[in-house]
Amino acid sequence: MKMKELLLFLSCVLSVSVDGQHSDFHIAGCSDSYGEDVYGLDGEEVAYADFNKQKEIYPQPPFVDPMDYPGGYEQAVGQLQICRANMQNSRKGMKDFPLERDAPSAVMIYTKDEVEFGEENYLICYVTGFYPAPVNVSWTKNKEKVTGSSINVPYINKDGTFTQISRLDFTPQLGDTYSCKVEHLALTEPATKFYEVEALARSDPGVGPSVFCGVGLTLGLVGVAVGTFFLIKGNECS
Ligand SMILES: *[C@@H]1O[C@H](CO)[C@@H](O)[C@H](O)[C@H]1NC(C)=O
Asked: Signal peptide: which range, if any (predicted)?
């Protein structure tokens, strides 16, 4: 009976290639507790339905000519109902077949850009290889819970498992430790990955070379002075 709330039923995965150059996709899926409806291009999200905010969200970068799907949210709500009805039918027909469950095969934590102390950056928690969707991801900084992270909608992999990427804005300070905690129903306890801001980050790239140059120049000038001194002394002797 557990399965009731767990089953994620993938009703539609559509992939169209144009001259093998671009891949356009639409994923609609549901479980009793979760639903997803996302349009994408070349692996990137173009639009998805946010069933909590009850509207279509367009997570597109500022440089694109915005693409929108008028009526997209209403259509997604319809799809979700169809998906749940199909799921009930399958469940009845298959006599409550057991749910497949795969724990995440990989959880990785890393920064978006090279770390510079005091410069804004993002921490990324990349979770892949799980089924069904979704995972819950939560973050800590120095063991205290932090809020303000965001997570994308589950993205389906070629093997039918899912990937989700959570992102946290952060400003690296030496010694700070971050963690991302991943919960999934196939995990008996959460998977946690840590990130520590280490000293190997460059604090100010200008300091090293200019100190080196300064010391070199000073030694050179001392050499010239000493040389001149002996040259003069030598001349006096002869
Ligand atoms: C994720 O969080 C939601 C809301 O707190 C909770 O209902 C759900 O059980 C959690 N899922 C997992 C796999 O822990």
From this structure: 1-20
**What is the pLDDT at residue 14?**
47
Cα of 142 vs centre of ligand 1, distance in Å, is: 23
95 φ, ψ (degrees, to nearest 5)? 50, 60
How far apart are alpha carbons 138 and 167 in whole angstroms?
10
Measured between alpha carbons, how far is 169 from 150 in angstroms, rounded to an integer? 9
**pTM for the predicted model, two decimal places:** 0.73
Question: What is the tens place of the pLDDT at every residue in 41-96?
Answer: 988 999 999 999 999 999 999 999 999 999 999 999 999 999 999 999 999 999 88
Q: Which residues pair with 9 in a beta bridge?
A: 30
Q: Which residues line ligand 1 (CB under 6 A)?
A: 136, 183-185
All domains in the chain, ordered by first residue:
15-94 (3.10.320.10), 106-201 (2.60.40.10)
Protein residue with least CA distance to atom 6, ligand 1: 136
What are the start-end ranges of the E strands in the chain? Answer: 9-18, 22-30, 35-41, 44-50, 55-57, 106-111, 121-130, 136-141, 144-146, 150-151, 155-156, 162-170, 177-183, 191-196
Q: What are phi and psi of 112, to 5 degrees?
A: -70, -50
Report the C-alpha gap between 110 and 195 in whole angstroms: 7
Ligand 1 centroid to Cα of residue 164, in Å, is 15
